[in-house]
Amino acid sequence: MIFLGLSSCAQKNESLYSKELKIQPKINIPLSADVQVENAAKIFVANFKLITNQTLDIERSNTLNKNYNYIVLRVNPTQKENYCIYKKEKNITIQAIDTKNLVFGINDFYKQYTPLKFIDKVKNNNEDTIVDDIEIPIEFNYCSSPDFEYREPYFSSNFEPNFREWNKTNYLELEWGIWGHNLSKILKNYELPETAYAQVGSERVKDQFCFTSDALFSLVNENVQTIYDSDHALNKYMILPNDNDIVCTCNTCKAAGNSTKDASPAIFTFLNKLAKNYQSLSFFTAAYVTVKEIPNFKAEPNVGIFYSTIDIQKGIPIEYSKYSKTFENDIKKWRNYVNNVYIWDYTVNFDNYFDLYPSIRVTQQNLKLYKRLGVNGVFLHGSEYNYSIFQDLKATLFSKLLWNTSTDIDAEINAYFHEKFPNKLAGALANYYTFVDNSFIISKKELSIYSGIHQSIEKYLDPKVFFSFYEEFDSNTEKNKYDKEFLKIGTALTFLKLEIMRDNGIGTYGYATLNNNQEIIVKNEAALLLDRLTAFSKSSNLKTYNEINYTIEDYVKSWKQTIFRSHKRKNYFYKKPFKVLSELDEDYTDISMLNDAAFGLKDYNTNWLICSVDGLSLKIDKEHIKGSKKITLSFLQDTKHAIYYPSVIEILDTNYKVVKKLKVTFDDTDLGTRELTLDLPTQFDDEKLPNTFILKITKSNTEGKNALACDEIIFN
């Protein structure tokens, strides 16, 4: 009975390939197969050679020789599913709706029935992967179609053809003739008439277009034809107004339906005209800034909309957030208006590409919602051409989720790391990433795609767990010091540990301690980590860490300057009580950052108290700063964000009489930090320091809206 049972199990499989028995299939493509089908066949052959070191023959024929086993490759545009793979008797058929999906089906066959891994294709080295036998089931038959027709994880991993073919994704460079806010670039070489620009009041402004302009339409229409003629794969075109809130209200735009805040009618009029001229192409705009409402006329069938989640992507599944109802209503109204609704979503912290921002489960929940609402395309905005930590993991898992939203995330995380790294390191990475990804979705705290380290710590980044993981990761350095991917992860994790220490200031997870003499003592570990960050970044050739290309070199330099001048500096005001008299901004009410010894660098969203509605005035009791001889204050200037150094710093008594005053000299630095010192009054000064006094910091007198950013206030 045991023998019969074993025989029964054995009969479920048979050889696709056997070196010993000289069994291997042929590839069959139709006589009429075009070059793309032939290329798909060559991909099958290349895959086969990677794991067997054998080359398969490609046969062109409409009939099959009964003496051979075949892999039959076919294209059938009329079939329902994107691709099907089935075995009938001794032949295997892979059939798809087009050649792109035929390649997807071929790679899926290898994933399902052979030991071939994606990393084998990347390395293109078959020395360690050669097998002598490949067993496959006697029977199988399945088909597959994606949950979204357009699927793009916008990370550099996805820029590689091998990645896209293996992971079944799209790539904007190959499909979009015009993408994003690039209309201005398309038209930059033309002398546009005034009427092509938006009219605001009685003036024409060149910062925005008039979308009922015949001249504008003629030029865009001509460019669409030129672009499409250059490459017929470029079949999608995005027509967006420039990225501002200007709306044209000329007579023709108002007649189309424009209001002072809504440009939708004119833009959809423009899209409809293009759509009628090119009925085989697709034309999109974005529900963003001035495109909000549905026009009162019908959209052409080949017109679509991108819906950006930039205002609602807060690290919480949308359906469980306060934005849920509005979002669902918006998607439903656009689905009723156009055939194609694509989502533009976000998957990294653009202020810190080394922040893990582990949003895979959150993204999965959102994708399930998008699918349920009838969305048929998703663009997941990642770190583009820049490196972000675990970007390849994210790109891989997002690809799987875009095809099948019910993908098992835990299993895929584990499989990814074990395919890429040695077992010990893979286990540490898989366990930690699974932990933080779960922590991220469990937490109800918001974390926007532009956030400082403090918000990340509050959301998911437990310092105790991270420090323990970092130690475990670091124990693998010696064995992996020549692995480029390991070095990149090491760079990011070291940066992240320094950020946690910077945010914690003084204490177990901080960069320093405070001794009995009220002196800041910088830990040796801080200097070691800075040296390690420099070494890791140079070895991995990583130079920047966020969207606006702040450099690691400057980060290390700024850190060292700060801790060198902080070491053994007295800090009598550390965590002492005080009162704020000035009006604080709604989003900046945590006054503890003014005397917590956690320092700010050039990123405005970490450890800076930003004041835009008022200056900053503090009421301080003299008894809390005994022993102090001066005040040392830190400020940020970031002109891009309208943050400037202060104009005046004053010590006042409680009747607002000036005791001491410092006029700050003008500084035209665009981005920088600055320490300013004000001596406290001594017994020899005319005015003495009152028992209770006011420290007043006046904002810059720069014209227009501006803000003040203050970090540490140290009495030393």
Note down, in words, how this protein is organized.
This protein has 21 helices and 28 strands. The protein is of the alpha/beta class and 716 residues long. The strands form seven sheets. A seven-stranded parallel β-sheet has the order 9-17-16-15-14-13-10. A six-stranded mixed β-sheet has the order 3-2-4-6-5-8, with helices on one face. The chain is flat. The N and C termini lie far apart (88 Å). The model is unreliable at 1-11 (pLDDT under 50).
Tertiary shape: flat
The span between the termini is 88 Å
Q: Report the average pLDDT across residues.
A: 95
> Which structural class fits the helix and strand makeup?
alpha/beta
Uncertain segments: 1-11
Rg measurement, Å: 31 Å
How helical, in percent, are the residues? 25-40%
Strand order of the largest sheet: 9-17-16-15-14-13-10
Keywords:
single chain, 716 residues, alpha/beta, six-stranded mixed beta sheet, 21 helices, 28 strands, 35% helix, 21% strand, flat, disordered N terminus
